[in-house]
């Protein structure tokens, strides 16, 4: 797999006004990007090349050497292709594609955003996605790796079916978002026409503005692989206490993370897990940071944790049931996405997620 990143790092935000609790940590985009990169770094065992195209906004240009040093410290030199420029136009992409892709079946993790963080606990599902795409005869097949609550809703809407390995829901759709795992042949096809001087740093608007057609097979993972750092308040008001925005955990960059599990209160400078918590911290200051069990700890955290403190009255069976209930709740959130309104009705079948539930 090639991980292809094409981004501008700036605190000047465009698009949706995402909601975050005013007391929530909210670092500048430079540190958010470093956190995103840390998530990508743990994918190294299944990545052949990290092709990074990066530019910095004026407010961060003086930190380019700092970022360069950081990137080179966490990615293997023999896999890293670091470019301090961005592909802005179709002609840029044509040149980049000719350099990167010799095999049309090469699988490409395209990231057109700087803030979609890999939070899965291992690489099993991503590896299964690579295998699934390579075996799929559709040259345009997609694994939609982020915006998981939306993807589960869309897979139900389009009558999706569980794959044999139980890692994905397969359905048919058309979409060009910049958060896709796909074959090189599809990505190359985006840039075959001449877009002139139209900015094209992401393919998101190919369909809406250029009438580009590419209906294809889509795969929605049966567990959350990646979460948008800012969360998903753009699709509904029900996210704050279910799928909140992320934050850089205290101690992450220093390798001094401390995890508390099962406590009813929230302690600053720790990352607080409590599957049974009524509230999440983004919704209420006293809530847990995540309704996760220890098994849900993101892979990119594991070498950063120095202390894990489990409450003395922690009941694993009870907490596993609470964690599973919270997990399933994230698949049933009322929302409006892609001009479709979803209610609590027509929920995804529990059987889709059986491989990812913890309760006995």
Q: Class of the largest domain in CATH?
A: Alpha Beta
Provide the β-strand percentage band: 15-25%
Distance between the termini: 35 Å
Radius of gyration: 20 Å
Task: Sketch the major β-sheet.
Answer: 9 strands, mixed
The stretches of 5 or more residues where confidence is low (pLDDT under 50) are none
CATH architecture of the largest domain: Alpha-Beta Complex
Bulk shape: globular
> How are the strands of the largest sheet arranged?
3-2-1-4-9-6-10-8-7
- Label the structural class: alpha/beta
Helix/strand order: EHEHEHEEHEHEEEHHEEEEEHEE
Put simply, the count of helices is: 8
Number of domains: 2
Would you tell me which CATH topology of the largest domain applies? Answer: Spore Coat Polysaccharide Biosynthesis Protein SpsA, Chain A
Give a quick rundown of the structure.
The protein is 23% helix and 20% strand. The chain is of the alpha/beta class and 360 residues long.
3D structure, described in words:
With 360 residues, the chain is of the alpha/beta class. The chain has eight helices and 16 strands. It has helices at 29-41, 64-74, 90-100, 124-135, 148-157, 184-189, 206-210, 316-329; strands spanning 2-9, 49-56, 80-83, 107-111, 116-118, 142-144, 161-162, 168-173, 179-183, 216-221, 226-228, 257-261, 271-273, 305-310, 335-337, 340-342. The strands form four sheets. The chain has a nine-stranded mixed β-sheet, with helices on both faces. A three-stranded parallel β-sheet has the order 13-12-14, with no helix packed on it. It has a two-stranded antiparallel ribbon with strand order 5-11. α1 runs parallel beside α2 (64-74). It is globular, with a radius of gyration of 20 Å.
């Amino acid at each position: 797999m090639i991980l292809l990143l094409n981004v501008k790092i700036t605190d000047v935000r465009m698009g949706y006004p995402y909601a975050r609790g005013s007391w929530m940590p909210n670092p500048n985009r430079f540190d958010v990007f470093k956190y995103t990169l840390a998530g990508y770094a743990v994918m190294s065992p299944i990545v052949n090349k990290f092709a990074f195209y990066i530019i910095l906004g004026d407010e961060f240009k003086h930190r380019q050497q700092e970022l360069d040093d950081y990137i080179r410290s966490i990615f293997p030199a023999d896999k890293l292709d670091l470019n301090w420029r961005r592909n802005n136009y179709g002609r840029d992409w044509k040149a980049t594609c000719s350099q990167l892709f010799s095999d049309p079946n090469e699988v490409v993790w395209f990231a057109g955003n700087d803030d979609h963080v890999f939070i899965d606990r291992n690489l099993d599902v991503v590896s299964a996605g690579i295998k699934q795409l390579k075996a799929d005869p559709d040259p345009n097949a997609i694994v939609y790796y982020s915006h998981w609550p939306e993807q589960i809703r869309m897979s139900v809407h389009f009558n999706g079916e569980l794959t044999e390995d139980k890692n994905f829901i397969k359905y048919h759709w058309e979409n060009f978002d910049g958060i896709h795992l796909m074959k090189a042949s599809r990505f190359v096809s985006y840039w075959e026409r001449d877009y002139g001087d139209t900015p094209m740093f992401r393919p998101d608007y190919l369909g809406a503005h250029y009438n580009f057609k590419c209906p294809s097979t889509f795969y929605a993972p049966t567990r959350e692989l990646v979460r948008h750092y800012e969360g998903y308040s753009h699709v509904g008001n029900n996210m704050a206490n279910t799928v909140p925005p992320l934050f850089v955990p205290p101690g992450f960059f220093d390798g001094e993370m401390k995890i508390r599990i099962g406590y009813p209160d929230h302690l600053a400078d720790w990352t607080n897990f409590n599957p049974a918590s009524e509230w999440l911290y983004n919704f209420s200051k006293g809530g847990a940071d995540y309704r996760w069990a220890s098994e849900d700890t993101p892979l990119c955290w594991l070498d950063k944790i120095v202390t894990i403190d489990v409450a003395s009255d922690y009941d694993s069976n009870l907490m596993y049931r609470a964690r599973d209930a919270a997990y399933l709740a994230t698949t049933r959130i009322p929302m409006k996405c892609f001009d479709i309104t979803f209610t609590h009705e027509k929920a995804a079948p529990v059987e889709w997620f059986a491989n990812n539930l913890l309760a006995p």
